[in-house]
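[09:14] KT: can someone run the structure on this one? pasting the chain below
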Amino acid sequence: MQSIHANNYPIHFNENAYEALNNHLKENKYSNLFIVVDTDTNEYCLPKFLPLLETDLTIEIVEFESGEINKNIETCIEIWKVLTELGADRKTLIINLGGGVVTDLGGFVASTFKRGVDFIHIPTTLLSMVDASVGGKNGVDLGNLKNQIGVINVPKMVLIDTQYLETLSQSEMRSGLAEMLKHGLIYDAAYWEKFLDLKAIDFADLDELIYRSVEIKNEIVMQDPTEKHIRKALNFGHTLGHAIESYFLENKNKKTLLHGEAIAIGMILESYISLHKNLLTKEEYSQIKSAIKSIYDDVIIEENDIEPILELLIHDKKNEYGLIQFALIEGIGKIKINQSVENELILQSFQDYKS
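[09:31] RB: done, structure tokens below
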């Protein structure tokens, strides 16, 4: 697979990935190497990765507990302390080996330690391959509020090795699939149509599907690296999806949702809103709702859940001047950003989801 060239960094795939990494290590005079992992990737991915490294650098492994609940500034502080104690300096390289939590948090740690050291992302989940590791966004949650603290700063490279997907559960694979569905809905109708019958997909072709998804996200980000305009398209399904994810994360009576599970709900809700703002046809909306519900289990959202979910919308990062801004789809494969939506229509979308 050919490498994809992003804004000032390459994205390498499979057989090319480790050759590119080892060449980078030879060509740059790093003082030492830190590999950031969570407990899952330490167990399942690190043993595969380490033998592929060709370097005489001192290697230190920095591990933190898995889970979105640990994607916070407290974890960063602990890692900054470890880096300091083990002699990290301005010429240190940090490799983030893991899913979206690891790449988001590890990129933020690297971007801020000593005002920034080089880092490389090696995503190990489908979600992080097609979304989190691409585009230069790094950050952590503030309490239950997603990605409130962070920076846009690009890695030296991203390495995508799809063999790591063999370690994932079906639920984690479905979580990543949500972002691939989104890429089709906002940008490429033909790509969306590939997912209408999952049974017909030959998952030997998964590499090509991942490649196209990365390509779509990169094409959008290249046009608008700092999310002033078209990059907001990538937030389709995320305005309500993030609020739902945050609410279920903080509520002890709810089962925590995976990111993609929440975004799948958000895409149905925001497609309903698109329909009622005359951006989608009934046929298109029916196709979207049917396809997504065929992949993801229904999540029970009670009447008394909706108001606190809506209250979380005020913290959405796209908001401007106190107004909630949605990215909606204008037909399948097209996007319309900076759309304001009245509360009544949002409430109707929840009722429709539950119907």
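[09:33] KT: thanks! The mean pLDDT is 94.
[09:34] RB: yep, looked fine to me
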